[in-house]
Every structure is written in structure tokens, then in C-alpha cells.
Amino acid sequence: MTRKTFASDNYAGVLPEIMNALNTANQVHAGSYGADEYTSRAIALFKTCFGSDIEVFFVYNGTGANVLSLSAMTRSYNSVICSDLAHINVDESTAPEKFTGCKLITIPTVDGKIYPDEIVAKIQRIDDQHHPQPKVISISQTTEYATVYSADEVKAISKVARQYGLYLHMDGARISNAAASLGADFASFTRDAGVDVLSFGGTKNGMMFGEAVVFFNRTLAEHFKYIRKQGMQLHSKMRFIGAQFEALLSNNLWKKSATHANEMASRLYRGLSHIQGVSITRPVQANGVFAIFPPEVTEKLQEHFYFYVWNEKTHEVRLMCSFDTTPEEVDEFCKVLSGLMRSSA
Fold this sequence. Notes:
The chain contains 13 helices and 13 strands. By secondary structure, it is an alpha/beta fold. It folds into 2 domains: 4-11 and 253-344, Alpha-Beta Complex (Aspartate Aminotransferase, domain 1); 16-248, Type I PLP-dependent aspartate aminotransferase-like (Major domain) (Aspartate Aminotransferase, domain 2), CATH 3.40.640.10. Strands 2-8-7-6-5-3-4 form a 7-stranded mixed beta sheet, sandwiched between helices. It has a 4-stranded antiparallel beta sheet with strand order 9-10-13-12. A two-stranded parallel ribbon has the order 1-11. Helix 1 (16-25) packs antiparallel against helix 10 (239-248), helix 8 (175-182) packs across helix 11 and helix 11 (253-273) runs parallel beside helix 13. The protein starts with a strand and ends with a helix. The mean pLDDT is 97.
């Protein structure tokens, strides 16, 4: 049996519209390193979303977007405050610390979010030469628990950042899912909420590769082209990133694909809620569902479906939906799980 996947939206393929855009860009010669019409049009679309007075730089991947964003905001004696589950802390090896030289200061979280009072508690020993100096607050949208910051929550964190002279970075690897969940435009919970630099994700929402670093605080972008080159994230045939973003940001394709993924997660949540012995552990706000069921059931279920055990100690699993997840796949997952739960009872 071919196993279906709820492991990650990275497992999904490429949106047909994105593949068509890549094929179209492949038919011509074009300037390299961003000197092409595809990149120019994509940047224009970003400015339509966020405002004309921004700077946009394309990179290969999410780790590159995050690390280079932080590099633009810090010096090696600084620290970055983030959730203990933040991608920069858990899933990017030590790349953020290696390339920035900064120390990550983490805050334990139960819902993926960090809150103003918790952040303030970590801002310590300002101007003390013996202590790393806090410079950036980094939040994930959506969070690693697939929860979503409201615009007001982002504004509250931004207020803390301004009060203490810090910058606010948003890891938006799944920013489209957040926007679809909030029913809001991108700018409302990023630029308008006080974010300085945004890592804008494309890969998890149907692109083959490519992310964007968006500067709302343009002074931070002054030397970024050199930081990007030094960080080995300058794509020579950049038109293939630009073409993908042009397709993603046109005709609400980003919204259509992210909304579908979110709806499939909601369908999965409803199905799991009716299975006796299954515990839903986190609020379902975007395209991820977290749950606990017996480990012996997990092992048998993984013979049919790919998915990850998120927490080995508690047996919590993570189930991610994508733009191409089907209702039939969701229903099949719930049916197989229900049968396994009955057999193990």
C-alpha cells in the first residue's frame, strides 16, 4: 500500500500554477541574479501587498531567510528572544547561532506563542558588557503548534520591542495559513502590527523552492545584498523564484491553497474528535492538528500514513495538511485510526 502523508506540508508537491510558471520562465533567457522581469514583477506584487516603501530579497530556503534576517538586525554580542519551540531554536541546527554569533534566549511555551510579560522577563542586564545584549524578538506565524498570533498580539509584542529598543522578526514560513485563518491581509498582522523584518514562506504553500525576506524597516536592508551573497543565498537564476512568487501572489492563489489546507485540518479535527481515546492537545487554528493516542496504535497507523511523533515522552503526534490533501484522505485516516483504537481497547 502506498502510504498517504500527514507528516509535513513540505512533503507535498508543487501547485500546478507554480509548475506552469516555472515552465514558462524556462522558455526564455533572462538576466541573472535578479535582473529579470519575473523578479521585478514579483517584487511589485509584494509591494502591492505590503506597501511601496519596503525592500524585498529572494532566497532559497526558510533557514536562509531566518538566519539572514537575524544577521541584518544583530551583531555577534546580541541575543535573540524566541519560543523554545521556535524553528530557529529547534529545527535549524545551530545555523542561527553559527552565522550571527548571537545567543538564543528561549521562553517555554504551551501554545507555541510567547507573550509580552514573558519577553520582558528575559530582557536583562542592559548595557552589561558581561551579558549578551538583547536585540531581536522572533516569533513564528503560524507557530510550531499551528496556532496563530492575532494582529493585536503582534502589536503587544512590538510595543515591548519599541520600549526596550529591540527589533521584531517574524518567521512566516506558514504566513499564508495564518492570513487565511485570520481572514486578514498580510500587512495587518505584520507591517501594520510593528514587525521590522519578515521571512515570507513559499515552499510550504506549494512552491518548489524560494522564500522572501521583507524589510518594513528599510534601514535594516542597507547592506542586505552583501549579507545575502555572503550567506550563499543569492540565486543566479532568480527568475525561477520570482516566477513562482508571481504566480503565488496572483489571483489569490496563496489564499486558495492555504485555505484548503486549513479546512482539511479542521475536517481532520472533527473526525478525530469522534474517536474514543483520542485526545486533541492544541487549538486547531491553521493546517496542523496535534493529538495523543496509544503508542502501539501510532506504530500501526504509521504503516498506512506518514506522520511524525512530535513529543516522544507524551506520545503527542503532529498531523499536517497541505494544499493537495483531499477529504477522502482525511476520512480514510480517521477510519483506519478508529479501527485500530477499537482493536487495541
